[in-house]
Amino acid sequence: MAGGAMALGLPAGAQPAPRVPAGYPGDYAETIARAQQEGAVSVYASTDLEAVQPLIDGFQARFPGVRVQYQDLNTLDLHERYLAETARLGDGRPARDAAYADVLWSTAMDLQIKLVNDGHAQRYESPERRGLPGWAVWRDEAWGTTFEPAVIVYNRQHFAGAHVPGSRSGLARLLQEHVQQWRGKVVTYDVERSGVGYLLAQQDARMGSEFWYLAQALGRAGVRLSASTADMIEQIASGELVLGYNLLGSYALSLMERGAGIGVIAPRDYTLVMSRVAFIARRAPRPHAARLWLDYLLSREGQALLSRSTSQLYTIRTDTDSQHTANALAERLGYALKPISVGPGLLAAQDALRKRAFLARWREALKG
């Protein structure tokens, strides 16, 4: 992830009032007008700028004069930067032009929920709530925005004529059988540097002890660790690596559709599905623009733009005119999909003692 700010669009000025979307409350026109007065929305996000650019362009066309200041950050950097900036504020409030997040949007669901639980989010009753599944919204503060499976990605040439693992136990056995020739050619997230990697591993461990058996097999195979989904999948596509475990499937499925020599397996025992979680910062200096951004992100139009991005992110809604919806994904990969609910169940993952114990066991397992 890049760490630079992207300020896009024209400065705020005299702008025609955009129409209020159908089905929105009548006073939403005031939200739009105030957002245009604020002139910008600052979004701290872990979604690559290239993937979100169509959404940014659509938003700025829809709401002239509200430019998007987009910070593309690693999940842990995003979390730590926001907390550091909040600490520097003390009891004060940021000025309207302050370099401070209005919206936080991250794949690290547990870190987001911890921030919400600790009082960092504004409650907002979005008009788009009715279009979302119940598991994707918590307290009208935290909002799931995508539907992304954690999958096994493999290089098809390496597996020509060979058995492809369909489950975690099958993958562990395969790693044992090929431990010598695949040594150093298997990859997964570095759970100590990747927020989404830690989330997925921790959720795996909750599903049963089989995960630790697989972790030991990964360790014996000299597993590589990375914090970048794109880097891992591109190395698998090039043949440098044989396969990757627990990678976010949206990028892999998109690359496969464009002709890359990779395959994607949704484990039949269960396939975790995560969602990029967004919330409006409690002390957002541009709160009306933040509401506009969140509503647009959750809207049919915004979700359709996400699904047409380079990464073809699968959308949380089921009523968009797109092949990249949760329902389409379930039909494509099978029905062992287990969405990770946006809510308090994620807080256990961020308990300091539990996290320390989990990471210690993870390091031990990787010794093989």
From TrEMBL:
Signal peptide: none annotated. Keywords: Signal. It comes from the Bacteria. GO terms for cellular component: outer membrane-bounded periplasmic space. It holds the Pfam family SBP_bac_11. This is ABC transporter substrate-binding protein. The lineage of its organism: Bacteria, Pseudomonadati, Pseudomonadota, Betaproteobacteria, Burkholderiales.
